[in-house]
TrEMBL record:
EC annotation from Swiss-Prot or TrEMBL: 3.1.1.-
InterPro entries, sorted: AB_hydrolase_fold, AChE-related_enzymes, CarbesteraseB, Carboxylesterase_B_AS, Carboxylesterase_B_CS
Protein name according to UniProt: Carboxylic ester hydrolase
Keyword Protein biosynthesis among record annotations: no
Listed Pfam families: COesterase
Keyword flag Secreted: no
Domain Carboxylesterase type B: 117-321, 348-626
Domain of life from the UniProt record: Eukaryota
Species of provenance: Daldinia eschscholtzii
Swiss-Prot/TrEMBL keywords: Hydrolase, Membrane, Transmembrane, Transmembrane helix
Length: 692
């Protein structure tokens, strides 16, 4: 057979005439010449039996008149048409169905009657809580795959698809393993811990677009210590006008193991605890609409290390976002940045930030922590391994938790009986995710431009200082064990800055001074410095607020704690939000009960309007800005006469504005000079080339 008469040539010829050319003529024209219309039915369709007989006759007649090779060509044509046209559709159907299912899930809000939500990768059944079941509560939903096995010390990845049907979302998931926690335990803490919780109005829809409040818990980056605040009271107090989210993230050994060997050749990632937080922000962007939330109006908040994380996300968002132009016209981070910057919002993951008792620890570089990684290898029997990360991943959870997720003295510092460092694991300056120390980045204006609200309690350090600090020397040892780079000369000034204070119950004589020093060095002064840097580096300094929480509690006073670290959290979330009705501190149901609605309304107002005063409790004072005059080069009386920062004083029966007192500002200036030794800053003129 020559080329022109081959089946493929025939197919090409027939194809040029259109698809109907390969079909028998009677199927195309509908003409049946052998059929005669019965009398009286000239305009009607022929009966089905007649059509069938005519079809059969026509087929046989056509078949007998057709040459065999043409029959073969027609068959080939039919097969090819089936393969080309039908097969791709069949192959794509499952994929298309899956994609449509996921897209449908994204368009499906939580059901107002049954608290059910489909996230595409899983469907969760929550519960209705609050007054008249007006709040839909979803607990223990996965936002990332279990960070176990080969996923240890790697950035989080999306959960696997689970299409098994409704999964119960009525119990908090295990929180992440903290330092020195026994394992196995009762299941409250585990390595598989990346769970998120959501509270939303039960009647919310996709069109609701409610402001979203994301809370990042604290724990000094070594524990999840504020894991299970319940958001019901906040949603109710907002008149069901917000969506609240909280979650777990990796901490301690599991979240902040650091070394160049961790990230060598793709072996792992650094700062994975912070990357978990980032993953939740992206999870919100993808899924919060199903709960009635607005992904374009997310306010992040946190307590303690969670508040410190909020500050870090202001920097990370800037680093991940577009470069900005400075006021002097330079771009891409060129120039000295002295004119300030107005950073882009990076990925637009949030529009406002709240920090309660922010924790600003030492921020070491990766090189600073190689000794810590060596210690972990020694503790786990991996010191001689040619592939240390594989060796560590081969160890079971109990071995790693019991032998390596424990505190040790910092290099050059004595061990017990002197105090061990309070926070053995912290985020590190990795040169990419966290390009440099936060104070340097803030001083250079390398942060995104969103409204901020940050403050502290009156006695931040009382829950951290050892009760047995009996002398100025004891105070110095405690401070240097936590900040080991402090020199003898620097430490010699501690007692003059923090002379002996009046005694407190149940504590030795120098405890009050040690507590004040640690609280100011680690929480209060860095917060003030942050706010001052923030307002100086903005084009517009009208979006920064601060507070001092000074709400008395008789039990705290009897224990010598004053108004301790994160004491404000009970007012922010409500006293029933941890242990249920009546489970909070007694004072919040009695003399301090009136504080709760005021604080909640300020916070809710900020979340909803990015201003704490807009929706404040009637009669409550306007919350004035940190630097009401727009700032000078510094908000200190010791720098060119500029005013000290203003903050809202919160006391029982008294909410009013106060100015940071001069003596505290002077002590903060002292710590600012020591910032390089505290590893809170690399040095005033020593700035890494971070390429911003």
């Amino acid at each position: 057979m020559d080329a022109t008469s081959s089946p493929f040539a025939l197919l090409e010829d027939l194809s040029s005439q259109g698809p109907l050319a390969v079909m028998p003529a009677f199927l195309v024209t509908g003409e049946l010449s052998s059929y005669e219309q019965p009398p009286g039915r000239t305009s009607q369709r022929p009966p089905r039996a007649a059509i069938a007989n005519a079809n059969a006759n026509a087929v046989m007649k056509t078949f007998r008149a057709t040459k065999p090779w043409r029959i073969f060509a027609v068959l080939v044509t039919i097969v090819v048409v089936v393969v080309v046209v039908v097969t791709p559709t069949a192959v794509l159907v499952p994929r298309r169905d899956q994609e449509e299912t996921i897209e449908q899930a994204k368009r499906t809000p939580s059901h107002p009657a049954v608290a059910r939500v489909n996230l595409g990768y899983a469907q969760y059944q929550g519960s209705l809580v609050g007054v008249d079941g007006g709040v839909a509560q979803y607990l223990g939903m996965r936002y990332a795959a279990p960070p176990t096995g080969d996923r240890r010390w790697r950035a989080p990845v999306e959960p696997d698809v689970d299409d098994s049907g409704d999964q119960a979302a009525d119990t908090f998931g295990p929180i992440c393993l903290g330092i020195s926690v026994p394992y196995p335990n009762d299941g409250a803490q585990d390595e598989d811990c990346l769970f998120v919780n959501v509270w939303a109005p039960a009647n919310a829809t996709l069109e609701s677009k409610l402001p979203v409040w994301l809370f990042i818990q604290g724990g000094g980056y070594t524990a999840n210590s504020n894991a299970n605040w319940n958001g019901t009271a906040v949603v109710e107090r907002s008149a069901r006008n917000i969506v609240l989210v909280n979650f777990n993230y990796r901490v301690g050994l599991w979240g902040f193991l650091a070394s160049d060997r961790v990230r060598a050749s793709g072996a792992g990632d650094l700062n994975v605890g912070l990357r978990d937080q980032r993953a939740v922000l992206r999870w919100i962007q993808r899924h919060i609409a199903q709960f009635g939330g607005d992904p374009e109006h997310v306010v992040i908040s946190g307590a303690s290390a969670g508040a410190g994380s909020v500050a870090l996300h202001l920097l990370v968002s800037y680093a991940e976002g577009d470069k900005v132009e400075y006021n002097n016209g330079t771009s891409n981070g060129s120039g000295n940045g002295s004119s300030g910057s107005n950073g882009s919002r990076g990925e637009n993951l949030f529009v406002g930030a709240i920090g309660e008792s922010p924790f600003f620890p030492a921020q070491p570089t990766v090189a600073d922590l190689e000794w810590q990684f060596d210690l972990v290898l020694s503790q786990t029997g991996c010191v001689d391994s040619s592939d240390p990360m594989s060796c560590l991943r081969s160890k079971d959870t109990a071995t790693l938790q019991q032998s390596a997720n424990i505190p040790s003295p910092f290099p050059g510092r004595p061990g017990p009986p002197t105090p061990l460092p309070l926070f053995f694991w912290t985020p590190c300056i990795d040169g990419s995710f966290l390009p440099d120390s936060p104070s340097v980045l803030f001083s250079k204006g390398y942060f995104i431009d969103v409204p901020v609200l940050m403050g502290t309690t009156s006695n931040e350090g009382t829950v951290f200082a050892p009760a047995d600090v009996a002398s100025a020397e004891d105070m110095t040892i405690f401070l240097r064990n936590n900040y080991p780079h402090l020199t003898d000369a620097q430490a010699s000034n501690f007692s003059s800055q923090y002379p002996q204070e009046p005694p407190l119950p149940l504590h030795e004589s120098w405890f009050p001074s040690a507590a004040t020093a640690y609280g100011e060095a680690t929480f209060i002064c860095p917060t003030n410095t942050f706010l001052s840097s923030y307002v100086r580096r903005r084009n517009n300094a009208q979006h920064a607020w601060s507070y001092r929480y000074d709400v008395y509690d008789a039990s705290n006073a009897a224990q010598g704690l004053g108004v301790p670290h994160i004491w404000e959290s009970w007012a922010v979330f409500g006293p029933d939000s941890q242990q249920g009705p009546g489970g909070g501190p007694a004072s919040y149901y009695n003399e301090a009960a009136g504080v709760v609605p005021l604080v909640m309304d300020y916070w809710i107002s900020f979340v909803r309007t990015l201003d704490p005063s807009t929706l404040r409790t009637p009669g409550a004072p306007v919350w004035e800005l940190w630097d009401a005059e727009g700032g000078g080069s510094d908000t200190t009386t010791t720098n060119g006469g500029a005013t000290n920062g203003k903050r809202l004083l919160m006391q029982i029966g008294n909410f009013s504005m106060e100015t940071v007192p001069d003596d505290q500002q002077e002590r903060c200036d002292f710590w600012k000079e020591l910032a390089p030794a505290l590893q809170q800053r690399r040095g005033f003129d020593e700035v890494l080339d971070i390429g911003l």
